[in-house]
Design a protein that fits this description.
The chain is of the alpha+beta class. It is built from four helices and seven strands, in the order βββαββββααα. It is elongated, with a radius of gyration of 21 Å.
Length: about 130
């Protein structure tokens, strides 16, 4: 009885113990059971250098950021993969978290630049509202 296989790719991720995987897993698995039949792991930096990924981002009118990714030449015209939308507020909170500011070595000057960009965005929304 032949086994019906499908290709798969698993992205690098953190496991439940918090350990990071720095490799993509490519392989074939049984369509029916999901059990892998063959797997090869390739380091994430190697994949990043060799695979042309087309990525775009957009913001919805309700302030959510949506990222689309597509592998040109692999997806053959299939729709891009859209990740779950994240709110602009969540992204701002993550950017200004104490841990992130320390990791990015962001100081007063960087925060003022960020604030200026947000204020420009607010003014543009106000102009759009006034034009309605």
């Amino acid at each position: 009885m032949p086994v019906d296989l499908e290709p798969f790719i698993e992205l690098p991720r953190h496991d439940c113990a918090g350990l990071a995987s720095d490799a993509y897993r490519f392989g074939y698995r049984c369509k029916e059971t999901g059990v892998p039949a063959a797997i090869v792991e390739i380091a994430a930096p190697t994949v990043a250098q060799c695979v042309p990924l087309k990525v775009s981002a957009r913001m919805t009118i309700d302030g959510k950021i949506v990222v689309n990714a597509q592998l040109p030449g692999v997806d053959h015209g299939t729709p891009s993969r859209e990740c779950e939308a994240v709110s602009l507020i969540e992204l701002v909170e993550a950017a200004i978290s104490v841990d992130n500011l320390r990791m990015e070595e962001a100081g007063r000057r960087e925060l003022l630049t960020f604030l200026g960009a947000l204020e420009i965005s607010i003014q543009r929304v106000k102009i759009a509202l006034a034009a309605m």
